[in-house]
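Escalation from tier 1.

The customer reports that the assembly of two entities below gives different structure tokens on two consecutive runs. Tier 1 could not reproduce it. I'm attaching the input and our single run for tier 2 to review.
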Amino acid sequence: MATFNLNVVAPNGQILDKEVEFVVLPSDDGELGILANHAPLIAGLQPGVMRYTEDGKVNKISVCGGFVEVVNNKVSVLASTAEKPEKIDVDRAMAAKERAQKRLQDKNPDVNLLRAEMALKRAVARLQTVGKL
Amino acid sequence: MAGVRDIRRRIRSVANMQQITKAMKMVSAAKLRKAQEKVVASRPYAKQIQDVLARLAQAQTDVSHPLLEQRPVRKIGYILVTSDRGLCGGFNANLTRLTKGILEEKKDVNTGLIAVGRKGNDYFNRRSIEIITKFIGLGDNPDYSQARRIADEVMGLYTNQELDEVYLVYSKFVSVLTQEPTMVKVLPIEPSTEKIDGNYIFEPSPQEILDKMLPNYIESQIFSALLESKASEQGARMTAMDSATENAKEMIAKLTLVMNRARQAAITKEISEIVGGAAALE
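Tier 1 run:
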């Protein structure tokens, strides 16, 4: 199967640089699948799970916002944060999720709802990546 | 000549200092390694976002954004990144000197500082130069959220037209021995002239992508500066402490020599007194 280069970078380092067959990204407009020889594209990303297929095997990475650029058969993901499943702190994500949910339910006027919602999305993305949700 | 006891006391105090400088050197060497790793790790992202942005600006010439807007310059802001702590040789002095020079050059325009790090803040505060905001106590491990806070502040000042140009002054990490005070323009963002082929598909739209990407770009620039500055600081401190340790060693050697001479002189004096006393008895 035709492959292309997938490059995932975050401010704290390069996460991935590999030849892959297929990648699915959580874009602003819903899930976005990319195969080899895709047309040039720039899209925004939402917090979520990104899946890529390498040698027929599906791997997951959690990403929190950012962009993807496709050009010349090269896919670059610029994420605000990106983590492989083995790097994810499940307990922390779990705690973050509960905290965010509580904040959203309390309807306390001091709480920034947008921020709590983003925090919840990030935590959910991490938990989905490790398959704990 | 000082007494033997005094010299011995001085040697002991220099030795104590040497111990401290040596320890500080070790600590900063360890921190330097970590900081260096972080600098290297952050480079791919900074480079990528710059490239993508350049291509985006190229592909889409009719976009407008508050952060791209060029205005007549009434007030310039300088983000000055220094360290919170001293004992790092000329690190902060080099940066403040560069900044002072720039400020003097721009005398006929309004200027203001965004001080990151205590040293720069204190220096220019004492000289009553306007400090718009300060960020102090960022610690030894700069993280992205700190860069975001600074970026938010700066972008706010720019979009409210309080600042018309923003520069970033920081120390670039070249090697352990060399740190280079540098100034780069942050705002307004100047689109590059690199040529690209093909038309991009934008999702959701060029404008929305730009809205999202420009702040990220500024954040990443500030984040890199924080990391570079931290690595430079540790490098400068390590070199400074290394030479301090070396100087202490030299001083101990010199003082030991003086002490031995004094001790010998005292012994000689005593002997000649005894001999003189014995001779007087004969």
